[in-house]
């Protein structure tokens, strides 16, 4: 029997951390880090989580995009409220923050037994 990844595609017995990271990053919007709308991005191991504090222009609108590749789920909290469960199934999830604060805390923590890699990105949304 051939192993199947969470998205249902046949895979090798164990997909490498690097491969999972590349898949997660590949789901994010392709944007030059020098572009004015780019704010921040990163790639972390699911068990390590993401604990980012990004400086923004107060009152503007931003998009937070998250892609998790692996098993289980992660939980994203923006400004320490409204937790959102995100499956590590290789699907991009985006959320907008309107009327942003000057500093935006984003925390992404692993659910019980979750593994894999999580990529995240913050971009400014044009009005």
Tell me the β content: over 45%
The portion of residues assigned to helices is under 10%
Can you give the mean pLDDT?
A: 90
Alpha carbon gyration radius? 15 Å
| Shape type | globular
The total count of helices amounts to: 1
Short account of what is shown:
The protein has about 130 residues and is mostly beta strands. It has one helix at about 15-25; strands at about 40-45, 50-55, 60-80, 80-90, 95, 105-110, 115-125. The N and C termini lie far apart (about 50 Å).
Description:
The protein is mostly beta strands. The chain contains one helix and seven strands. A hairpin with a 2-residue loop joins strand 3 (62-78) and strand 4 (81-89). Strands 1, 2, 3, 4, 5, 6 and 7 form a seven-stranded antiparallel sheet that branches. The N and C termini lie far apart (51 Å). The longest helix is centred in the first third of the chain and has 11 residues, at 17-27.
Keywords summarizing the entry:
1 helix; mainly beta; seven-stranded antiparallel beta sheet; disordered N terminus; 7 strands; 127 residues
Please outline the helices and strands.
Elements: H1 17-27, E1 38-45, E2 50-55, E3 62-78, E4 81-89, E5 93-97, E6 103-110, E7 115-124
Antiparallel strand pairs: 1-7, 2-6, 3-4, 3-5, 3-6, 3-7
